[in-house]
From TrEMBL:
InterPro entries: Beta-lactam/transpept-like, Peniciliin-bd_prot_C_sf, Peptidase_S11, Peptidase_S11_C, Peptidase_S11_C_sf, Peptidase_S11_N
Protein name, as recorded: serine-type D-Ala-D-Ala carboxypeptidase
Family under the similarity heading: Belongs to the peptidase S11 family.
UniProt: substrate binding residues: 240
Pfam families, sorted: PBP5_C, Peptidase_S11
Gene3D superfamilies from the UniProt entry: D-Ala-D-Ala carboxypeptidase, C-terminal domain, DD-peptidase/beta-lactamase superfamily
Entry function: Removes C-terminal D-alanyl residues from sugar-peptide cell wall precursors.
EC number in record: 3.4.16.4
Length: 413
């Protein structure tokens, strides 16, 4: 029965997303919101998306990125055991904070990663930070450096969990005040989430779980849009909820539908503290809006030339060689629009010498999308390499000799 209801819910969602919702008729029931297509980074909707706001436990998304980075660098493994210091352990006694039982005082990185992502355990992410960087403060410094790399220069980061500093007592970041909280814009959050999904897609194997066992207890996901949730929507497999007095009720989500994966950010949903489910309703509305108005389109397929793209060949069996895309060039296009994105082939090579080897790089195919919302893209618009599709031998003698002679005369005499 449960599977039937979920399937019915998905069908209903797909039915309603088939009819476009006009941008001028749509708004998200939250203070800040954004929607971004993951592969391209194209912004598909924004609502006061660049204003800094408290994001509560959504902060853990950045912390988790650095945990995966530490795993990739070999600083830790999933089986590395982590001792729970008195600081994170003391927080487990505060029943108003999201946490898990840590009475055993030693757990694997794998278990703490699950606890941080699924149950939003504050103590688990603090323990991971202490293990990796030596202290929470040192880990916060890593967080600050990482977002600087991504062009986020004005975020406020004071802890790894997203808790208000008032909850941390004497353990606050040096130089911060008891009133400080982590502050990011919806655009910042989308940028971080996109990097996490692209660089460490295995995170979705965890965030898609409805429940997990930890220390002899079963804990359930805070994401009610997963398959067993009260607001289940097919395709949703992450990512992070956030709730606090300063942040209200917020939700960072990701879903894939019709081959297009998007990230949605809803910060401080309307009446969210009294009705936490409002963040899921607002997120579902935003997803419906995106999928009814945008589609992922392949502009040029891998192995295809673009508008007859070719390059002149010196001393080859043929005078020119076609130039083809090394990968698909995809773009998110607004449905029912005449403003269709295009692309431009650019190369610094006027002529290439034979023999030619398949796969030789000769230029770029750069997307030219002028249908922009806000800043348009989180990063630069997409491009793909343009390459020689097949080997080409030198011209046979005496043509090869003659070609070389003509070049010598033209260049030397």
């Amino acid at each position: 029965m449960r599977k039937f209801l979920l399937t019915l819910t998905t069908v209903i969602a797909l039915f309603f997303t088939s009819t476009p919702i006009l941008a001028e008729d749509f708004s998200v029931a939250a203070k800040h919101a954004i929607a971004v297509e993951v592969s391209s980074g194209k912004i598909l909707y924004e609502q006061d998306a660049e204003t800094k706001a408290s994001i509560a436990s959504i902060s853990k998304t950045l912390s988790i990125y650095l945990v995966y980075e530490a795993l990739a660098k070999g600083e830790i493994t999933l089986d590395t055991m982590v001792d729970i210091s008195d600081y994170p352990y003391s927080l487990t006694s505060n029943t108003e904070l999201s946490n898990v039982n840590l009475d055993e005082r030693s757990y694997s990185v794998r278990d703490l990663l699950n606890a941080s992502l699924i149950t939003s355990s504050n103590s688990a992410i603090i323990a991971l930070a202490e293990k990796i960087a030596g202290s929470e403060a040192a880990f916060v410094d890593r967080m600050k450096a990482k977002v600087q790399e991504w062009g986020i220069t004005d975020a406020k980061i004071v802890n790894v969990s997203g808790l208000d500093n008032t909850d941390l007592g004497e353990n606050i970041y040096p130089g911060s005040s008891p009133e400080d909280v982590n502050m990011f814009s919806a655009l910042d959050v989308a940028t971080i989430a996109r990097r996490l999904i692209l660089d460490y897609p295995q995170v979705l194997d965890i965030t898609s779980l409805n429940a997990y066992d930890f220390g002899g207890y079963t804990y359930y996901s805070t994401n009610q849009m997963l398959s067993d949730g009260t607001h289940a929507r097919g395709g949703v497999d992450g990512l992070k909820t956030g709730t606090s007095n300063s942040a209200g009720s917020s939700f960072l989500a990701t879903t894939q539908q019709a081959g297009m994966r998007i990230i949605t950010v809803v910060l401080n949903a309307t009446d969210g503290l009294t009705s936490p489910e409002n963040r899921f309703v607002a997120t579902n509305d935003l997803m419906n809006y995106v999928y009814s108005n945008f589609s992922l389109v392949t502009l040029v397929k891998k192995g295809e030339a673009f508008e007859g793209s070719k390059i002149k060949v010196f001393n080859g069996e043929k005078e020119t060689s076609p130039v083809v895309a090394a990968a698909d060039l995809t773009v998110v296009q607004r449905n029912q629009t005449d403003n269709v994105p295009t692309a431009t082939f650019t190369t610094d090579i006027k002529e290439i010498d034979a023999p030619l080897k398949a796969g030789t790089l000769v230029g770029k195919l750069q997307l030219k999308d002028q249908d922009l919302i806000g800043k348009g893209y989180i990063s630069e618009q997409a491009s793909v390499d343009m390459i020689i599709p097949s080997d080409m031998k030198e011209a046979s003698w005496p043509f090869s000799w003659w070609n070389q002679f003509v070049r010598y005369v033209n260049e030397k005499l």
